[in-house]
Amino acid sequence: MTVAIDRVTLEVLRNHYQAVVEDMARIMERTAYTTFVKETADFSTGLVSSGGEYVAYPWNLGASSYLGLNMAHTLAYFDHYDEGDIVICNDAYLSGPLCTHLPDIHILRPIFHAGRIICWGYAFVHSSDIGGAVPASVWPRATEIFQEGLRLRPTKLFRAGVLQEDVKNLISDNCRIPEVNWGDIKAMVAAVSSCDRRIQEMIGKFGHATVVEGIDAVLDYAEQRARAAIRKIPDGTYRFTEYMEDDLRSEVPIRIEVALTIEADTIHLDFTGTDPQVSSALNIASHGVTHPFLCQAINAYLVTEDPGIPKASSILRPVRVTAPPGCLVTS
Predict the structure, then answer these.
(1) How far apart are CA 61 and CA 164, in angstroms?
(2) Mean pLDDT in residue range 161-172
(3) Contact indicator for 125, 29 with CB cutoff of 8 Å
(4) Each residue's pLDDT tens digit, 244-301
(5) Which residues pair with 260 in a beta bridge?
(6) Do 97 and 287 contact (CB within 8 A), yes or no?
(7) At a CB cut-off of 8 Å and minimum separation 6, what does 300 contact?
(8) In this prediction, what percent of the chain has a pLDDT beyond 90?
(9) What digits encode the pLDDT tens for the residues 196-237?
(10) Which of the four pLDDT bands, split at 50, 70 and 90, describes residue 1?
């Protein structure tokens, strides 16, 4: 059964979705242990479509840098999910473009109704320590990912609602402050569990078909508004070159080059000419896709030009990225 979503219903639904993720973020703020949540707000939450796109994102709560991310690659890691499953990961190479560096721990919970996954609850936190040579954050002088700490490909931390003690122990045994790390993970679990509960409440209020169709409607609406904002930029190709001072192992500047082409309501970012990846922890594991870390300026433009635009991944649907394999932004 499908239902038509009129504009009034769309606004009601998208504000409900937004309230869900902001409530999740408040749970994280109040229950996480790490200083990175309390002092630097390096965390986030999200409501994710069954296809892997953010439907709602707490733009003013936590980190804003993940807006536009598509998690489809990570969600496809397992062929089957049960109600109560929770997936955890942090590996930027083995988890698709979702993960950035090892201290950022991500979890995803499938939300079921009538036996089918209708969306996902998502949370991430910058952990205080994940092992490795130094605690807390990026060690720029690392020459390989193994020096950064514990690597977790997508792994089921909970199976059908049951905590997998071996996975918990693996994480706890590979960090300096296991009680803090586990406290952060429990905060994320509480956030995504709240997401499940709130979506079920929405279904009870609006009906299954309306909530499910509303997810697609919000994504399409966000894309439409993004295209309208892009059309305000004159067509043409705009070229930019910037440098990082060095890679901490040499005194050679690192060039980042991009050609931004506007054509009607689309954007093409071409990073051809960017220097090769470096032997320190400064590369971006974008996997060569339209990654928000390559589109921060576009995100900023869209939400500034149109402050009411839904904070959804689909605002980057009009954006295409070309990035040579092995360069600084496609490590």
Answers:
(1) 30
(2) 97
(3) no
(4) 988 888 888 999 999 999 999 999 999 999 999 998 888 888 888 899 889 999 999 9
(5) 238, 269
(6) yes
(7) none
(8) 76
(9) 999 999 999 999 999 999 999 999 999 999 999 999 999 999
(10) low
b/e code 163-196 from CB counts within 10 Å (16+ = b): eeeebbeebeebbebeebbebbbebbbbbbbbbb
pTM assigned to the model: 0.93
DSSP type of residue 119: E
DSSP 17-51: HHHHHHHHHHHHHHH--SHHHHTT--EEEEEEETT
Residue 241: CB atoms within 10 A of its CB come to 11
Domains and CATH numbers, the chain: 7-222 (3.30.450), 231-322 (no CATH)
C-alpha distances out from residue 322 to 28, 118, 258, 267, 289, Å: 36, 32, 9, 11, 8
- The three-state secondary structure class of 105 is strand
AA identity, residue 269: L
